[in-house]
Amino acid sequence: MKKLKLPLLTLITSFTVGMVSYAEEAAYAQLLSKLEQHPALEAVRQHVIEQREAAAGAGSLPDPMLMFGINNFPADGKGGFDRFAMTSKSVGFIQKIPNSGVRAASVQAKQHLAAKAQIAVAYTHQQLISSFHIALAEKKRITKQQQLLLEEMNLLKQEAAFWDGRLQAGESALDERSRVSADLAQAEAQQARLQAEAAEFDAELVRLVGQHSPIDVPNLILTPWPNVLRIFSVQLAEKDVHVAQANVSSAESAFGPNYQLGATYAQRDNSGSFDGGDFASVQFGISIPLWSKWNQQPKLRSAQAGVSRAKAMLADVRSRTHQQLTTQYAKIKETEATQKALHEKQHAIDTQINSLRAAYTHDGRLDKLIAAKRSLLKLRLQLAALEAQYVRQVNQFNSLFEPAEVEPVATQAIQTTKVVSATEIQSTQAGENL
C-alpha cells in the first residue's frame, strides 16, 4: 500500500499543477483580449482606416459643376425675351480633370501613410503588452518584498527581546537595542512605501486591462541581438522616406497639364420676326505651365529637400536605435550576471546560517544568527527587485521589435528565476525555525 501512495500523490500533484497552469493561461488570454480593446490601440486602428479611405478617394475626379443661366438678357430689364431675340436660357456642366500623375502620387503617399499607421498599430500593441507585463512583475515584486519585510520585522522583534534580556541581566547592550529600534522603524517606512507602489501599479493595471489581476508574469524570451528582425522605429522612418518620394512624384507630375471639359445647351427665343433655334456648345480647356519657374519648380525643390531630410533622419534613427539596443542588451546581460552572482551569495549565506544555528545551541548568540538571517532577507529583497528589473528591461527591449515568427532561444535568466523560487522556499523554511 505504501508503494502506491507516492505515484498517486505525484499524479494528483501533476494534475493540480496542470489545472493551475491551464487556468493561468486562460486568465492571461482573457486579459490580453481586454488589452486588444484599449483606447490607445483603437485610436491607431482608426487612423489606419482614416488613411486608407483618404487614399481611396485621393485619385478620384472632383465633382462636376451643373450650371443654369440666361444669356443676352437686356441690361435694363425691359422687353425681356420679346425685345432681343438672341436671349436664351441655358443648362450645362463643367468637369475639371486634374493631372492624373498628381492624383496617382497623392494616392501613393496616402497609401504609405496608411502602411505607416499599420506599423504604429503593431508598435502600440507591443508597447501595451510590455506595460502590462511590467505592471504584473512590479506587483509580484511588491508582494514578495512585503512578505520579506514582515519576516525581517519578526526577526527584529526577536532580536529586541534578546537585547532586552541582556539589559535586564545588567549587560551593556543599549546601543544594540537602539539600533534594532531604528531598523524596525526603517522597515515600517519601507512597508509604507511598498503600499504606495502597490496602489500605483494597481491603477496601471486597471488602466490597461480594467482590473488588477493577481496572475503571474508569463515566461520571458529575450529577442537575440543583433538580429534581422524589423525594428519599429526604423520601419516608421522608412515610411516617411516613401511618403517624401511620393511628394516628389507629385511635384514632378505638376508640370503636366490639367484639363477641363464643359458642355452647354441653350434654348433661344423664337418670338416675333426672329426664328431662333436651340443650340449646344462644348468647351475643352488645358492648362499651360507658363509660371512653372515661380510655381512648380520651387515646389519640386522643396519636395526633393524633403526626401533628403527623411533619408538623413532614417540614417540617424538607425544609428541611434542600434546604439540604444546595444546598450539595453548589455544592461540585460549585466542583470543576468548580477542575479547569478547573488544566487551564489545566497547559497553561501544559507551555509552560514546552518553553521550559526548549530553554534547557537552552544554559545547562545542569537544576535549573530538573526544578523545572518537578516542578511539573507536583504539579499532576497534585492533579488526580488532584480527579477522585476529584468522583466522591465526585457519587455522594453522586445517591444521595439516586430514580433518574430520563429521563437528565439530562452535566456539563462529564465532558468535563474526558477532557481530563485526553489531557493526561496528553502530559505523561508529555514527562517521559520531558529
Topology as a string of helices (H) and strands (E): HHEHEHHHEEHHH
Main sheet strand line-up: 1-2-3-4
Q: What is the tally of helical segments?
A: 9
Helix content: over 70%
Ends: how far apart?
Answer: 36 Å
Principal-axes shape call: elongated
Question: Quaternary arrangement of the chains shown?
Answer: single chain
Largest sheet: 4 strands, antiparallel
Query: By helix and strand content, what is the structural category?
Result: alpha+beta
Q: Residue-averaged pLDDT, rounded? A: 82
Strand content of the residues, in percent?
A: 5-15%
Rg of Cα set: 39 Å
Any overview of this molecule?
- This protein has 434 residues and is α+β, with helices and mostly antiparallel strands.
- The chain is built from nine helices and four strands; from the N terminus they run H-H-E-H-E-H-H-H-E-E-H-H-H.
- The chain has helices spanning 2-35, 39-58, 80-83, 100-168, 174-209, 232-253, 296-363, 366-398, 412-432, and strands at residues 65-71, 88-97, 259-268, 279-286.
- A four-stranded antiparallel β-sheet has the order 1-2-3-4, with no helix packed on it.
- Helix 7 runs parallel beside helix 9.
- The longest helix has 69 residues, at 100-168.
- The chain is elongated.
Q: What's the structural blueprint in terms of helices and strands?
A:
Elements: H1 2-35, H2 39-58, E1 65-71, H3 80-83, E2 88-97, H4 100-168, H5 174-209, H6 232-253, E3 259-268, E4 279-286, H7 296-363, H8 366-398, H9 412-432
Antiparallel strand pairs: 1-2, 2-3, 3-4
